[in-house]
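Late entry, evening session. Most of the bench is empty. Finally got around to the prediction I had been postponing all week. Sequence below, unchanged from the version circulated by S.P.
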Amino acid sequence: MLYLVFGLYLAGLIVITAYTAKSSHNSSDFILGGKQLSGVSLALSERATGESAWLLLGLTGEAYLLGMQAVWVALGCVAGVLFIWFVMGERLQLERERTGALTVSSLLAKKFPGAERTIGTLSASIIVFFFLFYVEAQFYGGGKVLYNTFGLNPLWGVVIGSLIVVGYSMLGGFITVVFTDVLQAVLMIITLILLPVLLLFIAADKNINISLAIMNAGVEYSSLNAGKTGAAGVMLALSGLSWALGYTGQPQLLTRMMAIRDKKEVKAAKWVAAGWTVLAYGGALLIGLIGYAFVQGGVLPAESVARLSDAKNSGSELILPVLINFFVTPVIGGVLLCGAISAMMSTASSEILVSSSSVTEDIYGNYSKRKMTPGQSLGFNRWVTLAFGLAALVMALTVSDSVYGLVSYAWSGIGSSFGPALILLLYWKKLSRAGVLASLVCGTAGTIIWKTWLVAASGGISERLASFAFAFLMAVLFSCLYPEKTGK
């Protein structure tokens, strides 16, 4: 029955791809949809894209492993979503209308005539570099679900899930990705609402006191500050809340706002995005915490507990598929597991598309003297999409980090590089091209240096917070030191 439900899900993706692939006639359609999509569809697509395997596997696993301190991460993410939709959304749509930009990179570049090549090439290179890690995490997460559900060899799980995503991204482009995202957003929210409700009924039936199990785990697990006081407790909270900063610079999310047709649709879309986010994060936290109570209550088989205890392979990130497989009937379980797989597919497809469009628009488009026909341009975008997806697949086959860790790194790099520049572009008239370049360089360098050499000695300051603050300060400083000349 699980195979049947999963097969129907894949058949639905094939039908959507076949139906929507014909809608992409040129680069504008392939990269940004050509204004063919409604605001609600784009809001659901943004949410499916933004909340990847990281939410259904990573955050549920963190809640299971670390307890109540995971609440800070959830609050940071909810705050970030609300900020980009309610504060940045309308201005991004207007700026895209004014400039005609198809990508976030070109949105920055078109602001400063004469700097298109420099800004476009640098920003596209940053996107490709960090998104390889991000897509790698999604492919790896999808492989985990397929392994735990169907007993597939983890490597085969990665390959199968990856090829499906690369295939429909290459054939259909932005329009296909958005339509599949809508289906996947619905499946994800069903999983994150229905599964906790089912688990609460099961807990009541088996006399498992969830709150008591959490309290008995000790202060490190049951308290928001993990038993830390003073500066250490504050830094723990800020580390979780710092996830909010990264949302301000994620191209795969912000392009949805750029693609919205008008201000009226932005207003409807932001409420859809807000409601989806609050429900999804509440559900993810509950799944992890209830899973912990079930393990402590001894209701899971020893084999499942052993998988969850495998720290080397980030076993805690299997809590959601383990709970579904053990407690839920096959039909409902198949639907819920499709929601988990959808999380990977929706994010990976969007990031593959953003990366390929950055190469074609911001690198090739700025340097090539050869003018391609609409058909040639569309074909070129598809081949670059295929190449990027296959490169991420190769990386996913040799992954050595957790889904949570990979996403945290990529999220920091992209958010810290683009976030300060975009916020200042929208709200500060004195931003200069030097400030944009400083944001891109310092956000990237700050993330790599902090994550590689300084995080262990940082006293709990995450690379997300440190690199964003550094890049923001440098963007302001360089804009003041090297302002734009009058008339430019």
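Two things to note before I forget:
The chain has a mean pLDDT of 83.
The radius of gyration is 22 Å.
Will write this up properly tomorrow.
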